[in-house]
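job 3f2a | input accepted
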Amino acid sequence: MPDYVLPPPAIASVAVAGSGDRFAVRRIFCVGRNYAAHARELGNDERDPPFFFTKPADAVVDSGAEIPYPPLTSNLHHEIELVVAIGKAGFRIPPADALAHVWGYGVGVDLTRRDLQDQAKKAARPWDWSKAFDQSGPCGPLVSAAKTGHPEKGRIWLAVNGAVKQDGDLAELIWPIADIVSICSEAVELQPGDLIFTGTPAGVGVVQAGDRITGGVDGIGAVEVTIGQPRR
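job 3f2a | predicted structure (232 res):
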């Protein structure tokens, strides 16, 4: 066993529904603008091919957590998403084979510092500071595809303090799950433990300290987090 200069960090992980087991997270990939109505609400062309950005593995936080309102922003947004958990490695995976690489599914929230994202877009700079901050990827318990099958439709929704803000259907995905997995694998070799956040429906909006976020995907699960006060 090697010696490390500093103690190795804890392994980032997500709960598994109905089990004490955890799903170790290796990387997080996120798909941008994968629902036509959401692409339009941000002023983009829904016909564009999918693109990806990333979050660090330790951005994940369990459902039920309280997340401090993040620094450097006054415009924090919610984005509800179906999460794909990869269980089998693959590179340049054909779409017809892609679902065989999926271990299961969950429900996540892509928290976004929208003001920083808007600034980055205008300056043609990367989105990292707007997307990849601490605890920016809440994720509910994963459920295996052996139990759920591979969803092609089903309600996906999010509410803030009980008021529904996002309400769509997985059938509205521009690029379905198999295509997303296949296209992502053209750029990187997917590995067990990778998560893919598959995009958000229309209705993204602001959350404030004290707000309670709840959301879900029919047949898959739910997620719930509270936005706390900023860290001092």
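job 3f2a | The mean pLDDT is 94.
job 3f2a | closed
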